[in-house]
Amino acid sequence: MCVNERRSGVFDRAAFFGVIAAVAAPLALGPEAVSEAANVQYPLPLPTGPLTAGNAHAMRLAQRSPYARTLYSNVEALARTITDADLQRSVLGFLHHPAPDYAANAPTPEKRNAVRDALVAAGFMKASDPLSAIFPPGTEPNSSTVLQPFWSTPGSFEGSHHAYPGGLATHEYFNASMSAAFASNYDAHYFGGRPNVDRDVVVGAALYHDIMKTAVFQWNDDGTLFNETLIGNTGAHHVLSGAQAIVHGRTPQFVSTLLSAHDVLPPATDWNAAVVDWCRASALIAGIDPVAFGLLKRDGSSFKLAAEPVPIEAFISNLSDHDYVLMSTAMHVVSDHLKTRYASWQPPTTFDWYRAAVLSQSSAMSLYDALTRRGESVFTTALQKVEANLDFT
Q1: Residue 200 near residue 84, CB atoms below 8 Å
Q2: What is the CA angle 148-256-318, rounded to 5?
Q3: What confidence tier does 270 reach under pLDDT thresholds 50, 70, 90?
Q4: Which residues share a beta bridge with 303?
Q5: How many CB atoms sit inside 10 A of residue 83's CB?
Q6: What span, in angstroms and rounded, lies between the C-alpha atoms of 22 and 34?
């Protein structure tokens, strides 16, 4: 299950390391580099329909950003190293147009309420939780708007890691790069350099696992973000992304690998109940039986993962999804300094849009590094360079 024989015949390790070196470049783009873009191989895919005013404004901020354009291009470049043609096509489809396909299984209010009722009955939601927690605006049949592009979506809720236009691409790119590196290191250390870990699965899962943040973290007109509801005691986007994977015909191993991102996994002789819950919730939303699908198996009155012992890829998925640990701190520290700057400068926009504009041009990480490594004066100078390129219209 962990060996992709077909891949082993075409996978070139030297070429892979070359790709990783190339795609790492945009993460180094700091405030000093906002005036020009690096090599952009893949252009930003435009939405297929109208956006809400808030989502459209965030999209314009990302379009103006060399950092965001370069980063998206390199995300797509990394996705194109997936050798499984069907998986690559599916991942690229989401990167280009993150349509909420799971929602098509419940096209009427009655069916959508039935999904919510099933989640409540299973203990994954509260009866008072809104239906929009599962089916946010833009997921309705014949909706007048489409979801925001992947490349202008924030990476988390307001004030948390990567909460700016382009933040999701930053987060998923880092995670997917880490997944590839973990796979390579495990192969090198434990398997004599053979490509034993399924790199396609871990890279694909990293790019899939947060895709429905495009739905749950949409932009309000004032620059704030939608509130996210918990499903199964984790952010709704997680199980919605799992449902998307099921609807798109991904394997049970892929779905469980994707859903392992949010939990610290136990020893391989067991499986954390939280991951099983997320598998069940994703299956309910996707409208399938998780046992018949091959994702779970019955264990008396409860469930266990169908694949045991836990595969290596699931652990790598969890290990790779820790970018938020540093970035949440960076975001809070930088946000506090931006509030001070906003109060003294008073640009013609809300603070939330000011912060989004600044961080879409240069990630919170580069500004945090300038502050912690070189001090307040260097941070201020770097921030002023970013501000010189801002357009609030």
Answers
A1: yes
A2: 80
A3: low
A4: 298
A5: 18
A6: 19
How confident is the model at residue 175, as a pLDDT?
A: 96
pLDDT (tens digit per residue) in 318-375: 999 999 999 999 999 999 999 999 999 999 999 999 999 999 998 899 999 999 999 9
pLDDT tens, 286-328? 999 999 999 999 988 889 899 878 899 999 999 999 999 999 9
Nearest residue to 250 via CA among 238, 262, 242, 240: 242
34: pLDDT strictly greater than 60: no
Is the sign of the CA dihedral 25, 27, 30, 36 positive or negative?
A: positive
Inter-CA distances, 211 with 18, 22, 59, 61, 143, Å: 26, 23, 16, 20, 19
Contacts of 360 (CB under 8 A, 6+ apart): 58, 61, 62, 64, 65, 67, 68, 164, 165, 166
- Residue 348, classed as helix, strand or coil, is coil
Q: Which DSSP helix (H) or strand (E) runs through 235?
A: strand 234-235
Tell me how far apart the alpha carbons of residues 374 and 321 are, in angstroms, rounded to a whole number. Answer: 28
What are the structure tokens assigned to 210, written together?
């947060």
Average model confidence (pLDDT) for the chain?
A: 88
Report pTM: 0.88
- Structural contact between residues 379 and 371, judged by C-beta atoms closer than 8 angstroms: yes
Q: Find the radius of gyration of the CA atoms of the chain.
A: 21
- Count the Cβ atoms, other than its own, within 10 Å of residue 376: 10
| Of 179, 199, 197, 172, nearest in space to 74 by CA | 172
Q: Which two tokens stand for residue 135?
A: 């089916």
Please give the single-letter amino acid code of residue 385: K
Helices (H), 47-163: 53-63, 66-79, 85-96, 109-121
Q: Using an 8 Å Cβ cutoff, are 258 and 205 in contact? A: yes
What residue segments make up the domains of the chain, in order of their start?
5-107+134-324, 330-387
Residue 238 contacts residue 219 (beta carbons within 8 Å): no
Q: Which amino acid is at 200?
A: D
Contact 129, 229 (CB under 8 A): yes
pLDDT at residue 357 in the model: 96
In the block, residue with structure tokens 């938020």:
324
